[in-house]
From TrEMBL:
Signal peptide: 1-21
Classification via SUPFAM superfamilies: Glyoxalase/Bleomycin resistance protein/Dihydroxybiphenyl dioxygenase
Record-annotated VOC domain positions: 31-152
Name of the protein this chain belongs to: Lactoylglutathione lyase
Keyword Lyase: yes
Domain of life: Bacteria
Transmembrane domains' residue ranges: none
GO molecular function, one term: lyase activity
Keyword Signal attributed: yes
Record's keyword terms, sorted: Lyase, Signal
Length: 153
């Protein structure tokens, strides 16, 4: 009887230790909290992101007129930070991407706001069709940061 109890206790201990190791905080993946974009004109960039992407402004703790925070839903937040000096040349490979239900409808919105866009190759008013069937376009925010919009589900 002692041997069965001892064997059961050892097995329980091994299983418990494995379960605890799997629940260790060190094995939990990080979650995106926010993306910060440095901008030269906070008011202009706030209007741009709010009107182009219909983002909702959320409270920010600084109240220093140098920050605008937007909710990105479960993905986290977008923080605009005033202070960029001069013009920058950003590479298209480094971009923010937003998904929309319809790229074609989104293009109509960009055209109505006189915002130029292009496909990945740089063809003006072009729409890239990826091999997986996703449509995508690229354009720049007021400071030249590249933005992608696609219809990925």
């Amino acid at each position: 009887m002692k041997q069965i109890f001892l064997t059961t206790a050892i097995l329980f201990s091994i299983i418990f230790n494995k379960a605890m190791a799997q629940n260790n905080a060190g094995s939990t993946p990080a979650v995106l909290n926010h993306i910060a974009v440095y901008v030269s004109d906070l008011k202009q960039s706030t209007v741009f992101y709010e009107s182009v992407f219909n983002l909702k402004i959320i409270p920010e703790p600084f109240h220093d007129n140098r920050h605008t925070w937007f909710s990105l839903g479960p993905a986290g937040q977008l923080h605009l930070i005033q202070g960029l000096k001069g013009t920058q040349n950003f590479d298209k490979n480094e971009h923010l991407c937003f998904s929309v239900p319809s790229v074609d409808e989104f293009v109509k919105k960009l055209n109505a706001q006189h915002i130029s866009f292009e496909d990945w190759a740089g063809k003006e008013k072009g729409i890239t069709l990826r091999v997986d069937g996703v449509k995508q376009i690229y354009f720049k925010d007021p400071d030249g940061h590249w933005l992608e919009v696609n219809d990925a589900k």
